């Protein structure tokens, strides 16, 4: 599926597989898992625990600890300034992280991910992967698909196997390995 993820100012851990997942949280710890369904979540100022299965879920969290799990649908969630743990399966995932640690893994689909000012770890398998990191450490691995990656001002480690790989780094340490495919 398509994976796009955005997080700001904090630790963000995100995994998506075969589904639609959009997640954003603000100021706090956010743990979210979605599988095969529509999930929209927002909460404000406090601890939020939420689980939904096979349906539409609307929820938003801001400034606090948020634990959320949804199954079978579309998941929309945003996280900013805090720790974010998110896992989605089977669909489209949108996620972006800024100023913090971002860990993201997607399998079998299109993955778009951008991180700025922090540590970014990203792995995608079997699909299109677009990734950009600025001012920080960036570790990225893609297998069997199209991979576009750009990093600026920092350490960049990137590996791609069996596909098209486009990678650009400026002002920093860049380690890149590609096997069996087109590498630019």
Instruction: Give me the oligomer status.
Output: single chain
SSE string? EEEEEEEEEEEEEEEEE
Number of strands: 17
Tally the structural domains: 1
* Average pLDDT metric: 45
**How far is the N terminus from the C terminus?**
25 Å
Region (Disordered): 1-184
Summary, kept brief:
The protein has no helices and 17 strands. The protein is mainly beta.
Question: Describe it for me?
Answer:
- The chain has 184 residues and is an all-beta fold.
- The chain has one domain (2-171).
- It has no helices and 17 strands.
- Strands 1, 2, 3, 4, 6, 7, 9, 11, 12, 13, 14, 15, 16 and 17 form a 14-stranded parallel β-sheet that branches. It has a three-stranded parallel β-sheet with strand order 8-5-10, with no helix packed on it.
- The model is unreliable at 1-115, 117-123, 145-151, 154-160 and 163-184 (pLDDT under 50).
Keywords:
184 residues, mainly beta, 14-stranded parallel beta sheet, disordered N terminus
Please outline the helices and strands.
Blueprint lengths: L1 E7 L3 E7 L2 E2 L3 E11 L1 E3 L1 E3 L3 E6 L2 E2 L2 E13 L2 E2 L2 E2 L3 E7 L2 E6 L3 E6 L2 E7 L3 E51 L3 E10 L1
């Amino acid at each position: 599926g398509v994976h796009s993820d955005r997080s700001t100012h904090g630790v963000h851990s995100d995994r998506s597989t075969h589904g639609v997942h959009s997640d954003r949280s603000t100021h706090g710890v956010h743990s979210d898992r979605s599988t095969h369904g529509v999930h929209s979540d927002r909460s404000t100022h406090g601890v939020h625990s939420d689980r939904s299965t096979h349906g539409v879920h609307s929820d938003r969290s801001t400034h606090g600890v948020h634990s959320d799990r949804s199954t079978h649908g579309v998941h929309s969630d945003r996280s900013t300034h805090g720790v974010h743990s998110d896992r989605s399966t089977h669909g489209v995932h949108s996620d972006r992280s800024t100023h913090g640690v971002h860990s993201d893994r997607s399998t079998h689909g299109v993955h778009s991910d951008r991180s700025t000012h922090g540590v970014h770890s990203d792995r995608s398998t079997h699909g299109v992967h677009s990734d950009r990191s600025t001012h920080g450490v960036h570790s990225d691995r893609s297998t069997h698909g199209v991979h576009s990656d750009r990093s600026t001002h920092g350490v960049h480690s990137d590996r791609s196997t069996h596909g098209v790989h486009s990678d650009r780094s400026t002002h920093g340490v860049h380690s890149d390995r590609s096997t069996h495919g087109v590498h630019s």
